[in-house]
Amino acid sequence: MAKRRQLEVPSAEALKEIEEGFARETTPRSPRAPIADVVADAASRSDPLPQHLREENARDRADAEALRQARARGLVVVELPIHDITSDALSRDRVDLNEEDMAELRRSIAEHGVRLPIEVFEPTNPDAAGKFALISGFRRLAAVRELNALSGGERHTTIPAFVRAPDTLADAVVAMIEENEIRTGLSQYERGRAAAIAVHDGVFASVDDAVNALFSSASKAKRSKVRSFALVHEELGDMLRYGPRLTERQCLRIAGGLRAGHAEAMRQALESHAVDTPADEWLVLEPIIESAEGDGPDPKRGGRPRKVVERSAPVRLANRVTMEKVQTEDGYAIRLRGTHVNDELIEQVMDRIRFLLEEI
Known about the structure:
Elements: H1 12-25, H2 34-45, H3 51-72, E1 77-81, E2 85-86, H4 99-112, E3 118-121, H5 126-129, E4 132-136, H6 138-150, E5 158-163, H7 169-183, H8 188-200, H9 207-214, H10 220-236, H11 248-259, H12 263-272, H13 278-293, E6 308-311, E7 315-316, E8 322-328, E9 331-337, H14 343-359
Parallel strand pairs: 2-4, 3-5
Antiparallel strand pairs: 1-5, 3-4, 6-8, 7-8, 8-9
Helix pairs in contact: 4-6, 8-9, 8-10, 9-10, 10-11, 11-13, 12-13
């Protein structure tokens, strides 16, 4: 029979060592029920603000989202530095400004500010077209710039503007064209200018696309003419001082001369002559255009045009009369142009020429 082992009472040191080991292996239990921990955690995560402040915060979050959406659609007015805006990129307002109207506009802006924001967009070619390109508001921007210059650059440094999104740009340009057609009526040159600049700034891929979109309600024949007006601006827009004053017939004749290869001759003529009026500018271009067209029908040849053999450079006289020599297949002609040219003057010139010829 096995001998039973006698149990011994552990010492105080042994009991202490056992308790310390047990404490290391276990974690103390919370004296609270588990649901108390859940409630405490939920309370720590809840909004401590009162009800009216929580409602105000919710409205602020909704307003911020609405603002982001409006800004993305170009519906938010921002103040832009006037020097960051290129006014000749997509300006659809008429370029011929009346000084009396501009003075009235400057007074209004100086007293009340700009009431109606301009429209701009961020072009895809900022190096060429500027940081912001103008869609509408040419007069307002011009007036603010003049006021800024008058103040020595200290005031009127910004202007309120809508920054239109690229996906709405074409619609904005079309709307501006329609507004100007209704409000004042664009000149023939301005119609072509609008189409040419829209292509330059990437709104449309080609002049055909621009004309078809901007003047969709016009007849096929009228759209064809606008393409000719666009050609005039593309080739001579930086040289013409009185482009908007050109008539439809003049624009079409200039376009014909350009297509005949006389663009460089026209540019040189415009560069070498100082013009003070629309009539002066046309007198500079007309000889080159007539050279491209021929000198008109010759009745003796059944209406066939007489071929110009040689044409001298126009000579501008002190009284703004332009004189040139024209040699055709059957003789010479002296052509006089200018505001002072009339029947009386021509009769005097004829008498002088008759006197000179009879003395020979």
